Structure formats: structure tokens, C-alpha cells
């Protein structure tokens, strides 16, 4: 017996093929009663969409691409969990690509995603990316894109981010309220959105408490494994030297912790330390690490939900907006809190 087609359903219900197609995609353009009739008829006729044929026609492949800097990064692995959870519930496969923080890899990942005919794209920019023309071009071709975590204002898409400003403000204020005044800030490339937002929160907390911003206490770097030690050495050579470190990621904080311990500097006795992410091992470090918790899984869920709504045209077109999800300060031993 030949499998049923869209034409068979349309003929059965005396409606157009395009109406059947949109009803099966749950488009907002089709009223609920028509959707119900189409779904019932599709089930009765044992209609099954052919994903290969759909892809060849340029229609839905029921797959989305997700481009992240690094899957091994705790934050991104948690975000991917949230993305896959929602995508799978809504019948989509997830193709994951990682840039390893390289712009060239990001461009190559984008080409691979397009070659695999993904219906849309979720992306968190690599640390080298300060030009988003490759993404603008894809968007102009009609591919739905949603940015999350590391985003660019030059790309006019929905964005889903953590409240980086508030998290950095809370971390810095916590250090100030504990009596610290020379707070060093280790962060990553200055053009990244998360860098700018966390630096702004750090500066705002200093200003609120009447502590002048000192540019010499701020260091920009990458995620290189051997980079943190020399930066810590540079900062500790200053006079007066820092009495606290606030890092823009827990990965940097762990490197900072190792460097301070190697120098036999007591934490938090001589120097306080606080990070940003909340690694699963943060409370098992010695001392346990104070940090700002980012709701990575929730960010993943919200971001993919926005993307799938764009793909399925469930809502009428609205200007792209930014969804900001709150962060939480977690105080532990490294900043003088209770472990």
C-alpha cells in the first residue's frame, strides 16, 4: 500500500495542500479546528513525513544546528542539556558543532550546518569573533537564528543571556562589603558581550562604594591553560597588591586558585577569590569556590524555544528582543563565606 501524501489528506478534507502543510507545522495561520481535522485525517491515513524528501524540497528537516565554543565547558554542556530536552520534546534533532574559540572554525561550522539543511541555528560566539558578517548573510537568506550567552548587537536576532551585569555587581559588592578594596578582575576578550557586561557590573559596584576604578587591576586574556599564572604574578607585583580577585569565569578562577596556592598565599586570609559560572566541583575545591551561578540549562531551554517558535512561525513577526535570566551569588570559603 502506497504511503499517504499531503495531497491525499487535502483531497479527503477538500482543502488545499498548502493548508494541510501549514496545519501539520502548527502554523498560527491555521485555525485550531482545521488543525484538529488535519491531524486526525493524517493519523487515519497513516501519513508519515519523509525527512529526506522534505530536505530535498528545501522544507523542514526537523533538525537545528547549535554552535558553541566548547562542549567540554561546563556552562555549555549544561546549556546543551536544556536545548536537547526542549528540541526533542518538540520533535527536532540537534546537531552540535564546536568552534574551540576560533573564528575560522565558527565560519566552517556554519557552512556544515547549512550543508545539512538545518531549519535554524542557535549560536554562542567564539572568543575570536568580532565580525558577524557570516551570520548576517545567513540571516538574510531566511535562516532563523537565535543568539545565547555570547551575543552581538550587530546581529539583529533574539538573544537569551544571563544577567551578567547584576552577577558581576553582586560578586564585587560582596568583596567590598567584606573589606576588600584592591579587587583585581581577570576576564577574556574585550569585544565579547559577556566581558563588557561583567566589567560594567564590576565598575558599578566600585563606584557605588566610593572605590576608584583602577585600570591596572584589570587583565584581558583567553582561556589558555598556561595564561592565568603569569597574569596573577603581574597583578601581585603591583603596589599595593590586590587583596581580592574576581574572575569572569570559574575556569579562570580555578587557574587563579592554583597560582595563588603555588605562591603559598592564604585564601581568603590574604586574598579573596570569586568566580562566575558555578562549576559542579566548585564546592569541592580547597577552599570551596565562591561564584556567580548562571542558569545555563534554563538559558538553553528558553533559547531553543524561541528558535523553534521562529522556525514554526507560531507567532506573528515581532522585533527581536533580549531575554535576560537572573544570576545568583553563591558565597563559599574562598571569599570568606561558609563552605
UniProtKB/TrEMBL annotation:
SUPFAM superfamilies: lambda repressor-like DNA-binding domains, Periplasmic binding protein-like I. Residues 4-58 form the HTH lacI-type domain. GO terms for molecular function: DNA binding. CDD domains: HTH_LacI, PBP1_LacI_sugar_binding-like. Pfam families: LacI (PF00356), Peripla_BP_3 (PF13377). The keyword Transcription applies. It comes from the Bacteria. Coiled coil: none annotated. The keyword Transcription regulation applies. Keywords: DNA-binding, Transcription, Transcription regulation. PROSITE patterns: HTH_LACI_2. PANTHER family: HTH-TYPE TRANSCRIPTIONAL REGULATOR GALS, LACI-RELATED TRANSCRIPTIONAL REPRESSOR. This is LacI family DNA-binding transcriptional regulator. It comes from Hymenobacter ginsengisoli.
Amino acid at each position: 500500500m502506497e504511503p499517504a501524501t499531503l495531497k491525499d489528506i487535502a483531497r479527503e478534507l477538500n482543502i488545499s495542500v498548502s493548508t494541510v502543510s501549514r496545519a501539520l507545522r502548527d502554523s498560527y495561520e491555521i485555525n485550531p479546528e482545521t488543525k484538529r481535522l488535519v491531524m486526525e485525517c493524517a493519523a487515519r491515513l497513516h501519513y508519515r513525513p519523509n525527512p529526506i524528501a522534505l530536505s530535498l524540497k528545501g522544507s523542514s528537516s526537523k533538525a537545528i544546528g547549535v554552535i558553541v565554543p566548547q562542549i567540554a565547558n561546563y556552562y555549555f554542556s549544561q546549556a546543551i542539556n536544556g536545548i536537547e530536552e526542549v528540541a526533542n520534546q518538540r520533535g527536532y534533532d540537534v546537531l552540535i558543532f564546536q568552534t574551540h574559540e576560533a573564528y575560522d572554525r565558527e565560519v566552517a561550522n556554519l557552512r556544515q550546518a547549512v550543508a545539512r539543511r538545518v531549519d535554524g541555528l542557535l549560536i554562542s560566539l567564539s572568543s575570536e569573533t568580532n565580525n558577524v558578517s557570516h551570520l548576517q548573510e545567513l540571516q538574510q537568506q531566511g535562516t532563523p537564528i537565535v543568539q545565547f550567552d555570547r551575543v552581538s548587537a550587530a546581529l539583529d536576532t533574539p538573544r537569551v543571556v544571563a544577567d551578567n551585569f547584576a552577577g558581576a555587581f553582586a560578586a564585587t559588592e560582596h568583596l567590598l562589603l567584606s573589606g576588600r578594596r584592591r579587587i583585581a578582575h581577570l576576564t577574556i576578550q574585550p569585544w565579547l558581550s559577556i566581558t563588557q557586561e561583567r566589567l560594567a557590573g564590576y565598575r558599578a559596584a566600585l563606584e557605588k562604594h566610593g572605590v576608584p576604578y583602577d585600570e591596572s587591576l584589570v587583565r584581558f586574556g583567553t582561556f589558555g591553560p598556561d595564561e592565568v599564572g603569569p597574569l596573577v604574578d603581574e597583578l601581585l607585583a603591583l603596589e599595593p597588591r590586590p587583596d581580592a580577585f574576581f574572575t569572569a569565569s570559574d575556569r579562570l578562577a580555578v587557574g587563579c586558585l592554583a597560582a595563588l596556592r603555588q605562591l603559598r598565599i592564604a585564601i581568603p586570609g590574604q586574598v579573596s577569590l570569586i568566580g562566575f559560572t558555578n562549576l559542579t566541583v566548585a564546592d569541592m575545591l580547597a577552599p570551596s569556590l565562591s561564584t556567580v551561578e548562571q542558569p545555563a540549562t534554563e538559558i538553553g531551554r528558553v533559547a531553543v524555544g524561541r528558535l523553534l517558535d521562529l522556525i514554526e512561525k507560531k507567532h506573528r513577526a515581532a522585533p527581536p528582543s533580549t531575554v535576560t535570566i537572573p544570576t545568583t551569588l553563591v558565597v563559599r570559603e574562598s571569599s570568606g563565606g561558609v563552605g
